[in-house]
Amino acid sequence: MKNIYDWPYENEFGLRETVESDLLVLGGGLAGCFAAIAAARRGQRVVLVEKGATERSGSAGSGFDHWESACTNPCSGVTPKEIAEAYVEEQDGYSNGIAHYIECREGYDRLLDLEDFGGKIRDTEGEFKGAEFRDDKTGLMFAYDYKNRFTLRVWGSTFKPALYRELRRLGVKVCDRVEATALLTRETDGKKRGVGAVGMNVRTGKLMIFKAKATVLAMSRPARVWLFNPDLVGLCEFRPMQSVGSGHAMGWRAGIEFTMMEKSVRGEFSASGRSFPPYGTGNNHNTWYAATMVDARGVEIPYVDRDGRELKTVSERYYPAPGQKFFLKGGVIDEAKYEYRGPETLPFDELIRRGYKLPFYADLSRMPDAERRVIWGVMVGEEGKTKIPILQNYTERGFDPTKHMLQSYGTGWQSAAFLGQERQLFGAPGGIMNDWNLKTNIDGIYAAGDQLYASDCCGYACATGYYAGRKAAEWAGTVELTEPNPSDIDAEEKRLYAPMAAEDGMDWRELNMAISKCMQNYCGEVKCEELLREGLDLLESYEREAVPKLSCRNPHELMRTHEVLDILEVSKLILNACLLRQSSSKPLCFERSDYPEMDPEQDRKFITIRQEHGAVVRGEIPQGYFGDLETEYLKRNGDYVAARNEKYGDR
Fold first, then answer.
1. Sequence-distant (≥ 6) Cβ neighbours of residue 614 within 8 angstroms
2. Could you tell me the residue range of the domain that residue 546 belongs to?
3. 0.90 exceeded by the pTM?
4. Does an H or E element contain 152, and which?
5. What is the pLDDT of residues 186-239, one digit of tens each?
6. CA–CA distance, 597 with 583 (Å, rounded to integer)
7. What is the DSSP letter of 239?
8. Contact between 417 and 93 (Cβ < 8 Å)
9. In a domain, 640, yes or no
10. Number of domains within the chain
11. How far apart are CA 516 and CA 237, in angstroms?
């Protein structure tokens, strides 16, 4: 192995450390932190493994601005069942009803936890007292639907440090700067069981062996699959650079079952030199909802409600249409249906037909003072990667929302739109198939957050993380610690360290770029058997010819190399999943030229995929397999509901 030079940390290549626990949590984002807290509250020994620094790691490490589906908050006008079922319906049944119901039922509980830990969830200083979106009794502030009040504006930048303090208080062993690389399983009587994981310290190179009774996968969804720019690695994704879907790759290698991995949408939130910083341009969606929009002449662009009625005031934009129970906004819905669509500007084609002139702009100066300040201040500022790059930098350079506008790029209003072949796992994408315990098909391995299929937002991550943690903890209390197979550990050690032995070989960026080009060419907007198989052949050639040439100089470069190996694994998973669905599907953003029939009845199902002894295994699960959401939840969580009511009451 080559010498490490110009590296400030100790060289521990070749050393091993073994850590035992009742529950092992892989991933220190919101879902992982809450999974660890749930088990630690039950008195279990918990180990949390995080590639970065848990205090600020993960997609929410820099913050987030709103909390969807807080359906049990004291001001809510909707029930968890109503919103969860709406999510399932909006996605034409291709939705994780179990996880969404957990999000809607328990999401507000997790917000109250965060407040107890020191996070900020309400306007305690009265900065927005009297505003239409603020409840002056509770100090809670709401977004999107001011009538039903189930989406809260929050100070998300305060949450990760608060969670980290609670982990420490509860005695959770946090292994920061350690990448998890492989799941460990043992087979007894033909049935697999998870027994831990292998990882590597990304600063010293030490091999970490984690033995556990149960494991929760709480890592990120895949990224850098279709879009990657080797010169702009820090700007490649809306999510953090290190969030690439390693948990998916680990699960695929271990035989975990996935679904909806054929789904992908255009890469609108990926930068890679193709877009502007997220939320750094004027628009009227998500963080910027419902900003006043004007055209190049300064003429205001009208909002219309569900029924096409033109809205005359800013206030009207935040209320359902007459006869409409509620509407859904935010990032979860790919293509909202008529029943739940909220107030929105007219379609782009209609705007051009009416004579509105490009470019368009967001003009906050035309909004009421409180609405302007809550968008440019709380929302832009608390959302991921916006506090310093957008709010602080723009302000320091003279941007004043009371008199300046920001040009809009995106939402179909730009000439440099993303190409059809530039896809991304975004908008309730594919992931791990789960049961009502958020358990995978392998005993002892559970999943939460972005590891689950049809994953959503921060509330989804926190709620499913806590739920998976308590279910995994229950199971861990019924089994004994099982020794992993030593040969599995040896094989993983050999795989991990191989790039350190190669001299003057290929850099990880080269392979990442090659994978992205392969996926653009062979798994783009329109797919067919020949292209998909050509893509698989090309990726397999990379495994044979390029992977042995990968070369690293230190543990950090080795970590980046492992990430690209995981991206390669996930890409193969996606191509194989695309081959299994032999029809086209609008809700899955999936089009095949050789199977053009759109959403045939016989294919309206979850097609699952897993790997067994190197072979792809196809499965089928009907839509709605989770049954009546409220009934099935209560069957399994009566103890939680009783304890919750006693602790929180009407708070």
1. none
2. 487-615
3. yes
4. strand 152-153
5. 998 889 999 999 999 999 999 999 999 999 999 999 989 998 887 777 655 667
6. 6
7. S
8. no
9. no
10. 2
11. 13
